Amino acid sequence: MLYPSTTPEQKRRELRRLLSEGPIRQFPGAYTPLSARLIQEKGFDGVYISGAVLANELGFPDIGLTTLTEVAQRAGQIARMTDLPAIVDADTGFGEPMNVARTVQELEAAGLAGCHIEDQFNPKRCGHLENKNIVDEETAVQRVKAAAEARRDENFLVMARTDLRGVEGLDAAIERMRALVDAGADAIFPEAMKDLDEFRAVRAAVDVPILANMTEFGKSRLYTVEELGEAGADMVIYPVTLLRSALGAMEGVLDTIRRDGTQEAAVDAMLTRSRLYELVDYEGYNRFDEGIFNFEVPQRYAD
Asked: CB neighbours (10 Å) of residue 12?
């Protein structure tokens, strides 16, 4: 009821354990607090909160228009609804190194288990698009150092993302990754890898956990978790999958209503009322107040 009993500190320790013990871990992307609860119920290892998703939910493109306050608030709402560790996309850290330091402390306070900081300029763009602008190595290193030094909980995971692969090639990206690890990055997010061999090359180059980004319509084929694990990845995210799925379903239902004048033909594909009540834990709340859930759940035609 309300929020899970697992504390942020416990979640951070669990994230460290997950990444140190193997096998490869799966972190679907949550775009609402309730979707995070569904991810936990389905048995996944953790929750990922995409900066693109947070921007898209506000109706913006993923070009750095969201603020630290918006990201920390929404990410905190999502993280609080699950016992699983949640990692959030902190984009470029929302400014210079001092801003990066504040970003990490705000995300810690919001209950996140970790974040990643990237090496693009602002305005940034999705990692699987062309013509990205990348900061120099010194700037990227300063961001990671600021993030690592600012955290108050040593288990808060500071991950460094580099987009250099799509600009200067794999060798340059690997050199950047090594520098970011030396600067204090606990894990590496190599964005827009072309194939499994490139993940293997990254694995051979760094000795920290590696994240694989399996986003639809991107640079990489959608590899299986087994393939990615064999190639040396330690965790895999599916950042926009649930949002795309939900919006696709919404669009279909709206088309049905517009065409038929009723949603009747789409009802069987919807989450039922009883399943929704189960997810929001009506019965748990009723243990505190027996007047909350003292009714029969209507079935389809009684809804």
From this structure: 22
Instruction: Tell me if the bond preceding 298 is cis, omega within 30° of 0.
Output: no
| Residue-wise pLDDT tens digits, 211-246 | 999 999 887 899 999 999 999 999 999 999 999 999
Whether the CB-CB separation of 71 and 54 falls below 8 Å is answered with: yes
**Ramachandran angles phi, psi of 115, nearest 5°:** -150, 170
pTM above 0.70, yes or no: yes
92-140 residue pLDDT tens: 999 999 999 999 999 999 999 999 999 998 766 555 556 578 999 999 9
The domain 8-238: what is its CATH number? 3.20.20.60
In which residue are the tokens 């990227």 written?
Answer: 140
Record the tokens describing residue 29, joined without a space: 């992307």
Phi, psi of 25 (to 5 degrees): -110, 145
Catalytic residues: 48, 62, 89, 91, 116, 118, 126, 161, 191, 213
Residue 294 CB coordination number (10 Å): 8
Consecutive H or E run containing 246 = helix 241-260
Enumerate the domain spans of the chain: 8-238, 246-295
Token digits for 196? 């499994």
* CA neighbor of 199 nearest in space, from 225, 168, 167, 217: 225
Asked if 6 contacts 83 with a C-beta cutoff of 8 angstroms, the reply is: yes
- CA-CA distances (angstroms) from residue 258 to 3, 74, 246, 254? 38, 32, 18, 6
CA–CA separation, 99 vs 281, rounded Å? 38
Question: What residues have CB less than 8 Å from 39, skipping those under 6 apart?
Answer: 28, 30, 47, 82, 84
The residue written with tokens 């895999």 in the block is 236
